[in-house]
Amino acid sequence: MNNIRHIHEVIFLIEKNNEQWTAEQLTEAISTAWGADIHFASCSGNAFPKEYALDFLINRQKAALTEAGKVVLHPSMQICDGHQDFQGK
Fold this sequence. Notes:
Layout: E1 4-6, H1 8-16, H2 23-34, E2 39-41, E3 48-49, H3 53-59, E4 63-65, E5 71-73
Parallel strand pairs: 1-2
Antiparallel strand pairs: 2-3, 4-5
């Protein structure tokens, strides 16, 4: 597993494309941006595959789904600066 990015990269991707994608479309966009084998790491955990990225962000109140099923940033979302020191592979 050599293709690892920080989960904040997904937050930045959602921010740029707010309310444009469904969950499935976000997963496709992640593959397009970083490859089908991409995994993500958080500031305090192990790497996980792209298919779990949105659930991870929803569970931590970083992202949400609208009633129409579109991915948005959670209104109370705060981001740490852990991605600045991240050294993925």
